[in-house]
Amino acid sequence: MRGGLYLAVVLDLFSRQVIGWSMQSRIDRELVLNALLMAVWRRQPKQEVLVHSDQGSQFSSDDWQDFLKAHRLVPSMSRSGNCHDNAVAESFFQLLKRERVKRKTYHDREEARRDIFDYIEMFYNPKRRHGSANGLSPVEFEKQYFQRLKSV
């Protein structure tokens, strides 16, 4: 495959579910805004939500800041040189590479895009078990949590 394909994800720290994602050939503010837009569309938050990111320039753009304010999202940024701030995201990308991407040779970006979509939406969210989620997939973990809330 010529050129790269960049992936931005928005992870729910509670369940580890990928709730927003975007892929394109460049890293820019559009890439991250599209991922955040998907997350907001899926979750439709009623209250303020903390959005954590690293210190990339796309996260300090006026468009990013305006989007956060318009949707009552509170920005949080990693400290310089502290890799532990993004441990959950780093773990997701490590799993994606180990379980899917390193096993494949993609002929073009579209093939890679389809395969990464499949990994996120057909495997990682509904099936991939997590120790932090009592051995459940992110979707199942959330489902059981909300069922318990209803029964209280």
What is the element layout, followed by pairings?
Layout: E1 6-11, E2 18-24, H1 29-43, E3 49-53, H2 62-70, E4 73-77, H3 87-99, H4 109-124, H5 138-151
Parallel strand pairs: 3-4
Antiparallel strand pairs: 1-2
Structure in words:
By secondary structure, the protein is α+β, with helices and mostly antiparallel strands. The chain has a single domain (6-151), classed as Ribonuclease H-like superfamily/Ribonuclease H (Nucleotidyltransferase, domain 5), CATH 3.30.420.10. The protein contains 5 helices and 4 strands. The strands form 2 sheets. A two-stranded antiparallel ribbon has the order 1-2. A hairpin with a 6-residue loop joins strand 1 and strand 2 (18-24). The protein is globular, with a radius of gyration of 16 Å. The N and C termini lie far apart (52 Å). 18% of the residues are buried. The mean pLDDT is 91.
Features:
4 strands; two-stranded antiparallel sheet; 44% helix; 152 residues; globular; alpha+beta; single chain; Nucleotidyltransferase, domain 5
**Largest sheet composition:** 2 strands, antiparallel
Portion of residues in beta strands equals 15-25%
The order of strands across the largest sheet is 1-2
What's the CATH first level?
A: Alpha Beta
Number of strands: 4
Kindly identify the CATH topology.
Nucleotidyltransferase, domain 5
> Helices and strands: which structural class?
alpha+beta
Rounded to an integer in angstroms, the radius of gyration calculated over CA atoms is: 16 Å
State the end-to-end distance: 52 Å
Summarize the structure in short:
The protein has 152 residues and is of the alpha+beta class. It is 44% helix and 15% strand.
